[in-house]
Amino acid sequence: MPAIALVIEFDGTDFVGWQYQENGRSVQEQIQKALSTLYKEEIKVTGSSRTDAGVHARGLVCSAKVPFIIPEDKLPFACNALLPEDVAVVKAYKVSEDFNARFDNKGKRYIYRIYNSPFKSPLRRRYSHLVTGTLDVEAMKKAAPFFEGEHDFAAFCAAGGSQNTTVRRLTKVEVHDPDENGIIEIEVVGEAFLYNMVRIIAGTLLYVGQGKIAVDDIPSVIDSCDRERAGKTLPPEGLTLEEVFYDYA
Amino acid sequence: MPAIALVIEFDGTDFVGWQYQENGRSVQEQIQKALSTLYKEEIKVTGSSRTDAGVHARGLVCSAKVPFIIPEDKLPFACNALLPEDVAVVKAYKVSEDFNARFDNKGKRYIYRIYNSPFKSPLRRRYSHLVTGTLDVEAMKKAAPFFEGEHDFAAFCAAGGSQNTTVRRLTKVEVHDPDENGIIEIEVVGEAFLYNMVRIIAGTLLYVGQGKIAVDDIPSVIDSCDRERAGKTLPPEGLTLEEVFYDYA
Asked: Is residue A249 part of a domain?
């Protein structure tokens, strides 16, 4: 049976998240409905990530087995004609039958966007988190690299996760200077993530910017494995899953 | 009686436009309601521009006479607490009593945003116009300066305008290379504008990018004063009123 992988972009504002829920509008349901119409039988997809309600994606990947082949360059157009305006397929791959978007992914890149201004911005509100009051961006930039490498990230994990270990490896954590729109990007790349991990790291870096945690205290906050010592979980609208990495076979 | 000028940002998606309408959600109505609550009497505002339904603004300006003074640095916060999330006051000025945002403005800066991609983008859809198919951006860049200076812009004016003359002066028309998000910005600065003028100029530059009008034909399209020879009126979501210029007294 042929198998496909689809790269999905969506505006998370009006979704309950990626995963199918009986009572709620999920991205997974939209994709499954479109594919089922297209292939004229029920298609189930497996997602790379269960993004939360309100979180956006530019490159979530899902995989599915399908009954016949639609060429890779035609498939996004065929899907998009059947999808609502807040979700789209931006790339399609033919993959080997045992490909699984959840288990085969090699890592993910997230960006958390903070808009730092005294005033709310109607044109930025959907895709960033407003922080009023001055921020020491230089301090945030200095604190970020402490998160890189292999650590026990127990302090950066929301309750309710069911993982065996809270050790994870991050390959890049970088805070970028505000762009011309006043958006500060916090970029986080890693192999795998704990529940709410990026939003808690972003919240901790925000505390550094606000002078609530000193740059040099970050290693001890990490080592403490104490959720109370890290920053708040920032709201979902600031977070975008930018990319998921695979060796497409 | 004191007078104020407010710089307004709004997401035009869910508005019928700036101007008050009996049956429709206008930006003007939201501002007037907030100011009337704040000043405890009915306040009317005059806008710099009547933006159309769906058009955005980062810097529309409106003026009003008010019964008492609220300090300029406090006024945006007070207004924003009373405004919905898709409109905000981002700056306030105390102005002379005879200041009028409509008649005293010295010019405006607009940007029309085109997203050029084979696929729709859920994350860009609200603030840009999707154009599939390749575009010759270099040709668009060469064509833009022909619009600068004083011309009769009759070919770039929607029917229904009531102006005495269709002569206008543009001081800058520039097409920018796609940014990192794939957005091509068409920047238009001028003293005054005809109805739909920026959206028709953008549509004409788009025709140049698509090879439907040659770069060298632009002067004759302008001189023809023939609406049929210019491009289509592009849809409102791509347009943002970025700035309105004044000599604030």
From this structure: no
| Residue B128 burial (C-beta neighbours within 10 Å; 0-12, 13-18, 19+) | buried
Quote the pTM value: 0.93
pLDDT single digits (tens) B183-211: 999 999 999 999 999 999 999 999 999 99
Enter the DSSP assignment of B40. T
- DSSP 8-class letter at B233: -
Contact assessment for residue B62 and residue B51, using Cβ atoms and an 8 Å cutoff: no
Q: How many domains does chain A have?
A: 2
Quick one: B67 and B80 in the same domain?
yes
- What residue type is B192 in one-letter code? A
Q: Give domain status of residue B249, yes or no.
A: no
Contacts for A198 with CB less than 8 Å, ≥ 6 apart = A110, A112, A188, A239
pLDDT tens-digit readout, A182-203? 999 999 999 999 999 999 999 9
**Which residue type sits at B82?**
L
Helix (H) or strand (E) holding A88: strand A87-95
> Is A121 close to B56, i.e. CB distance below 8 A?
no
Quick check: A89 and B240 CB within 8 A?
no
B52: annotated active-site residue: yes
- Burial class of B33 by CB neighbour count within 10 A (0 to 12, 13 to 18, 19+): middle
Q: What is the CATH number of the domain that holds B137?
A: 3.30.70.660
Q: CB of A47 within 8 A of CB of A61?
A: yes
| Cross-strand bridge partners of residue B218 | none
- Do A194 and A180 reside in the same domain of the chain? yes
DSSP 8-state class, residue B188: E
Nearest-Cα distance to chain A for B17, in Å, is 15
Q: Which domain holds residue A148?
A: 107-244
Are residues A88 and B122, on separate chains, in Cβ contact within 8 Å?
A: yes
